[in-house]
Amino acid sequence: MFKHSTIPLWVNIFMLLILFFMGMQVYWFYFDHQFLAEAGISLQSTADLNIVYTTAGRLVAMIVITLIAIATQNPQQYMLVLVLGIFREGQETLIDPLFPYLNSPASPMADFITHIVIVAIEIAALVVIYRRTRS
Fold first, then answer.
1. Average pLDDT across the chain, whole number
2. How large is the greatest C-alpha to C-alpha distance in the chain, in angstroms?
3. Three-state secondary structure string covering the chain
4. Per-residue pLDDT tens digits for 71-96
5. Taking a C-beta distance cutoff of 8 angstroms, is the pair 69, 77 a contact?
6. Could you tell me if 53 and 30 are in contact, meaning their C-beta atoms sit under 8 angstroms apart?
7. For the residues 45-68, what does the mean pLDDT come to?
8. Is the pLDDT of residue 67 over 70?
9. pTM over the 0.85 mark
10. Of the four, 6, 24, 67, 130, which is 20 to 30 A from 77 by CA?
11. Using alpha carbons only, how large is the chain's radius of gyration in Å?
């Protein structure tokens, strides 16, 4: 599948890694409410559950779009997925350090740096794919 693609192998591997982390989050939001409670996420009302399930649903949509892009190896679809990822991770770059989970394994500064690295890789992947489609 990846052998004759215009998408570099490292981008495919990176996207599979991102899929893994999004899948973990979906699992937590749908099925592991104990983990969410330990993270400090309140699930005491219908409104709380609405937000958690809506977030999970949006992540599922991102997973489906990413899976389609990986399956088709279509550069335009990849660019769309990467733009969406840049905005999602870019937002998390600010939100996660400002409002850390109680059970977060990383300090807010380490979390911030991690998100900066992820966004930088996504931007690099977007630039590489864009250049390959334009040449």
1. 93
2. 54
3. CCCCCCCCHHHHHHHHHHHHHHHHHHHHHHHCHHHHHHCCCCCCCHHHHHHHHHHHHHHHHHHHHHHHHHHHCCHHHHHHHHHHHHHHHHHHHHHHHHCCCCCCCCCHHHHHHHHHHHHHHHHHHHHHHHHHHHC
4. 999 999 999 999 999 999 999 999 98
5. yes
6. yes
7. 95
8. yes
9. yes
10. 24
11. 16
Asked whether the beta carbons of 11 and 78 are under 8 A apart, the reply is yes
Closest CA to 90 of 56, 62, 119: 119
Provide the residue type at 44 as one letter: Q
pLDDT at residue number 7: 94
Nearest Cα to 14, choosing from 57, 88, 66?
66
Using an 8 Å Cβ cutoff, are 127 and 135 in contact?
Answer: no
CA–CA separation, 113 and 18 (whole Å): 16
Q: pLDDT (tens digit, 9 = 90+) per residue, 20-49?
A: 999 999 999 999 999 999 988 889 999 999
| For the chain, percent of residues with pLDDT exceeding 90 | 77
* Nearest of 3, 7, 5, 2 to residue 125 by alpha carbon: 7
